[in-house]
Write a structure and sequence with these properties.
Blueprint: H1 6-13, E1 25-29, E2 32-35, E3 40-43, H2 46-49, H3 58-68, H4 81-94, E4 98-102, H5 105-124, E5 130-134, H6 143-148, E6 165-168, H7 173-182, E7 186-191, E8 194-195, E9 201-202, H8 205-217, E10 221-226, E11 249-252, E12 263-267, H9 288-298, H10 303-320, E13 326-332, E14 335-340, H11 344-353, E15 356-357, E16 359-361, E17 364-367, H12 375-392
Parallel strand pairs: 3-15, 5-6, 5-7, 7-10, 10-11
Antiparallel strand pairs: 1-2, 2-3, 4-12, 8-9, 11-12, 13-14, 14-17, 16-17
Helix pairs in contact: 3-9, 4-9, 10-12
Pfam family, one: Aminotran_3
Keywords: Amino-acid biosynthesis, Aminotransferase, Pyridoxal phosphate, Transferase
InterPro entries: AcOrn/SuccOrn_fam, Aminotrans_3, Aminotrans_3_PPA_site, Class-III_PLP-dep_AT, PyrdxlP-dep_Trfase, PyrdxlP-dep_Trfase_major, PyrdxlP-dep_Trfase_small
């Protein structure tokens, strides 16, 4: 009797929550992935923006293996050097004052929401609890972060959702101002500078500045969700740095630890003392192995790399703009959305057949390659993508 295939095992034992592509990846080497048959693929998805320096990155491996051999876990009742080192680096690179570590983007956003509500409760009482988010946003898959998400498609099946959220259209300052002026319960505005799951849609810089200024004047906290846009993805360490604002709270995850589960919530001088002993916690948050991996990532996100991220993103745009079947291109840096005349999922499937991994977001093909993808490899992959889009136009 032959051993069961990965498909059989998946079907039999794994909850059917994913519409998986028909491939099983077995190993990786930088921006290349290999399936169980040995077929090679160029990875333009990086695990949805997670493997910032590609698969099996040598420096990341070295940092993680070194830590595995020393200490894999202690509770957060005790100090660990990797966690403290990572917190210092994040604060020094951003100007933020404190960090709380968790395990995912949703948890980082939960922490941000809790902090915003406690900040207002401490100063204004328990009635100031509403967090404003934007239509078309995505903030996670817990009950609370689904409630925060401004897409009706996610507000099904799991009722009752957490109360205390209001959604306003993106890039409509008047709608935000009208809501703030009419509702005294608002404590925070949470925004993604680029709505990733919403179709790789950047916000208007003028709108972001207006909202931030108005919020500050009313002591409404500005929370920026950098779960997908953070850690060098857009050409700056965090995308808000290109929008001329200084957030009160920043959440991040995905690319932070290079493939290990880690989220972080950063606080400025206004919010650094809100969470006191016992008000929040995490068993695995800031795990020393994850933190060691994250240090190896953050240490390499420097000006030279960020310049390359911008240049490679510009290359993608120039290569595809005006190409047959391409309607529009959105995004920043190496976070790119491509609107096409053909179905985006069909394009992703055909690219996979030809050895290129791409993602989708709404009706767009989405690219999130490793930050250090070699230019010749990027050129080859974009050429295949361009060919597929043109053939399916």
């Amino acid at each position: 009797m032959s051993a069961p295939s990965y498909k059989e095992l998946d079907t039999t034992y794994i909850a059917h929550t994913y519409g998986r592509f028909d491939v099983c990846f077995e190993k990786g080497d930088g921006v290349l992935l290999y399936d169980t048959t040995g077929k090679e693929y160029i990875d333009l998805g990086s695990g949805i923006g997670v493997t910032a320096f590609g698969s099996a990155d040598a420096l990341w491996q070295q940092a993680v293996i070194h830590q595995v051999k020393r200490l894999n876990h202690v509770s957060n009742l005790y100090h660990t050097l990797p966690q403290a080192t990572l917190a210092e680096k994040l604060c020094q690179k951003t100007g933020m004052k404190k960090v709380f570590f968790s395990n995912s983007g949703a948890e980082a956003n939960e922490c941000a929401i809790k902090t915003a509500r406690k900040y207002s409760a401490d100063r204004y009482g328990d009635e100031r609890t509403t967090v404003v988010t934007l239509v078309n946003s995505f903030h996670g898959r817990t009950i609370t972060t689904l409630a925060a998400t401004g897409q009706d498609v996610f507000h099904q099946h799991f009722h009752p959702f957490t109360k205390g959220f209001a959604h306003v259209p993106a890039n409509d300052f008047d709608a935000f101002k009208q809501l703030v002026d009419s509702d005294s319960s608002i404590c925070a505005i949470m925004m993604e500078m680029i709505q990733g799951e919403g179709g790789v849609m950047p916000l208007d810089a003028g709108y972001v500045k207006q909202v931030a200024d108005y919020a500050a004047a009313h002591d409404i906290l500005v929370v920026v969700d950098e779960v997908q846009t953070g850690n060098g993805r857009t050409g700056t360490l965090y995308s808000y740095m290109q929008f001329g604002i200084a957030p009160d709270i920043v959440s991040t995850a995905k690319g932070l630890a290079g493939g290990l589960p880690m989220g972080a919530t950063l606080f400025n001088d206004k919010t650094e003392g809100v969470l006191d002993a016992g008000s929040h916690g995490s068993t695995f948050g800031g795990n020393p192995i994850c933190a060691a991996g994250a240090v190896s990532v953050i240490d390499r996100i420097d000006d030279a790399l960020l310049s390359e991220v911008k240049a490679k993103g510009q290359y993608i745009r120039e290569a595809l703009t005006g190409a047959p079947g391409v309607l529009s291109i959105s995004g920043m840096g190496l976070m790119v959305g491509i609107e096409t005349t053909a179905d985006a999922k069909a394009i992703a499937n055909e690219c996979l057949n030809r050895g290129v991994v791409v993602l989708t977001a709404k009706n767009k093909v989405r690219l999130l390659p490793a930050l250090n993808i070699p230019r010749d490899t990027l050129k080859k992959a974009v050429g295949i993508l361009k060919e597929v889009i043109g053939e399916m136009a």
